[in-house]
Every structure is written in structure tokens, then in C-alpha cells.
# Entry
Amino acid sequence: MKDAFGAPQSLLVLGGTSEIGLATARRLIACRTRTVWLAGRPSPALESAAAELRGRGAYVRTVDFDALDTESHETTLGKIFTEGDIDMVLLAFGIPGDQERDEEEPLSAVRVAQTNYTGAVSAGLVCAGALQAQGHGSLVVLSSVAGERARRADFIYGSSKAGLDAFAQGLGDALHGTGVHVMVVRPGLVRSAGPDRSGAAAGTDTRGGADTRGGAAAGAPLATVPFTRAPLVTTPDAVAAAIVTGLRRRSETVWVPGALRAVMSALRHVPRPLFRRLPV
# Structure
């Protein structure tokens, strides 16, 4: 159960080496979270992440989880909830794909869609059902500003995030009044401190690079990604801070940085002929 200050005492991160996921875990541990589950494919990175969080005073366990192996989700994730209540689930896995390659290789595009949408729908429903059964908890879903409007540069990735965003909103409505809180987080460009590892946690591809979009490795030059000028560029720690604040406020939607709400509200209404020419 959450403590008297509203902080979750137990956390499950789906995408256990995601920089945003780990930054959120660090902040929550500092706020009295004591049990952390990191779900991802077995790897040195996953074990290193677990060791670091243990050094911060948390009881940390890892679990083998693959976003693409949807048939295993109910059993794998169900076992975690049999160990005790989970106060917060953070769905932090995803891949950006490679737009040019994905257009030429449909199976590659399908993998992006299956990871970012199908895998997330499966894991999200399993966790939502478990949270509802225990009568409390929060499900936090990392979406992306890329899902707000399709761009020529990354419409395959963006469409998968658009689907995830709509799913999470609908799930939140379905669970309203049950004691389960669903929060959608929409980061813009997230500049990481080092090589991004978010994909490895969910059994997905890892691509090196200094930038991340919505928690998935982008590996693209900064100039090719939208909203690159400060203050619209953010960091994993800033996203984590926004998540913690959103939990305390029981927000349903969180934009990071907050200015993106106004930016996307405007861009959503730009006529398509003009939008095609915008450098976004």
C-alpha cells in the first residue's frame, strides 16, 4: 500500500533498464519505496541496474520478461503479484525502429508495432487486472509526443505510440472508480546521459545514441528530431520528476516538458499541406 505521504512502497518497472524507468525508481526509493521489480530480458545491464538500486536501500528483484512474448505475460507478470501487492507499475519499454528501413522491410515495421503497441496492450491489461484485483495501485504508461500527430520522419513509430496512448486513456476510463489510477506520460525529446538501454529490458533492440524519445532509444542525430531547442528538450530525471509529481496529484496525463501541451495543441490544427513543410 502507499504510505501516508502517498508514495508507493512497491514498484514494478516493465523495461527494467530504461533510463526513465531507473530514474523514476531512484526518486521513488528516496521517497520511501522499498520493493522494486525490474522486468526485462536477462542481461548484464539488468543485473547492474538491480545492483545500483540495492545500493540505494531497496529490495530489488529481476524477472525475465519479453514484450514480444505475449503468451507468457499472464504467467510471468501474474507471479509477481502473487508475491505481494504492487503499488505502481511503470510501462517503460519500446523501440523507435528505423523509418527508412521499416518502410522497405514491412516485417521490421511490424516488430515496432508489436513491441510498442501489442506488447504494451498485453502487459498493460495483465497488470491492470492484477491491480484491480488487489483494489489499488497506479499504472503509468510512457507514451510519446510522437503519437500526437503523424510525421513523415517517424510515422511508423508515431502510429504505434498513438495506439498505445489511446489504449491507455481508454483503460483509465474503464478503471475509473475501481481504485486503480492510470496515468499517461507524454515526453518529447529526452536527452540521455549515455547510451540508452531501454530496449534491452523488454527483449527489444537496443540502439546506441545520446537521444531518446518517450523512453525508447532513438539513435538519431539531434537535428533530425523535433522540438530540439531548449526548454523543450528534457532528460530522464526530469521525466521521472514529472512522474512522481503526477502520481502525487493523481494526474491522468503528464506532458514533459509541460510546454509541449500548448505546442502540440497548436500543431494538431495546422493544415496538412502546411504541416508537411514544417521542420518537425
